[in-house]
Amino acid sequence: MDSTTPQVAVKARRGTIVGARIEGIGAAVPDNVVTNHDLEQRIDTSDEWIRTRTGIVERRIAPPEIACSDLAAKAAERALENAGVAPDEIDALILGTATPDTPFPSTACWVQAKVGLRKVPVFDISAACSGFLYGYILADSLVRTGTARKVLVIGAEVLSKILNWEDRTTCVLFGDGAGAAVIGPRDEGSGLLAHTWGADGNLAPLLWQPAGGSRTPATVETVEQRLHTIHMKGNEVYKHAVKAMQGAVLEVMEKAGVTEEDIDLFVPHQANIRIMQATAERAGIPLEKVYRTIQKYGNSSAASIPVALADAAAEGRIRKGDLVLTAAFGAGFTWAAALFRW
Ligand code: UT7
Fold it and tell me: Bridge partners of 24?
């Protein structure tokens, strides 16, 4: 399902009235840093392999007592403060995660209680690394239709809890974190210009957590076989990721009628530096416009884009009026791209 605001398809210039905007952004990552050198001590890997194949140098890993909602709530409070919005102004909360506190209730419910939101609708979406962009696109339609005025959208993960720390093909790749955005009504010139989102469930077994759901409930055997951890055919995922991300960014740029020169910053999902570079190259976006956090956080799935947006805003890499392109790809497979004016 795709959609673009009709007037935006023809005109995406500064000053055009467009969709719901990000009013405030915030992030929270655990303090604990685990470097590639730390991992060299535990498994058969090397800093050189991880850095050259992925771009990752270190990642943040949550301590045992920290769950998804703890990071999510902290990020949400920072986003609210950044937006100058009180918790009771929020009309809905959408939270993307693959590592919920509990299968039910949703992590959004735990966050609602922690942040002190009113008794508004709150729910999780399971779209893996595309979770934040799916959330932004949904929030945009809630705001456009008048169903909600302000929506909190969060991407949060504690992937360290579902990693097999003896599997070098996955455990070196991921990290923990949360990012949140307050989505509110457009103001002049800012907001979502164009988006695309999609999924292909035929490819689900290339990246998944096999046990713990109704297909394979938890047993002693599933735990012994490490079936509650991330299983990924990395090389195959890589090829699909490049193709889907490239297609998605070209599609949104065309829909909005913008060229690579109009883009101020490209903030891709941070899974692999080579995927990010290949996507940027295909779209003609120079590498200096590609924002990277992968070196310090690894792949934090649904959190990676909002954390990167928060860091970029804090560093002054995104300023009011800038045209920002984002794109994600993840388990499902799912993908999404969004082009918006900050
Ligand atoms: O965020 C959601 C979507 N996820 C992604 O987009 C991830 C997509 N995939 C990737 O980023 C890459 O495929 C990986 C980084 C996961 C792997 O890189 P690759 O270049 O595709 O490597 P590979 O899987 O083809 O493995 C190459 C070699 C293998 O050895 P042999 O069989 O050639 O002897 C692996 O065993 O690298 C070996 N290897 C490692 N060596 C040292 C795999 N993991 C490691 C490791 N340290 N941690």
Answer: 182
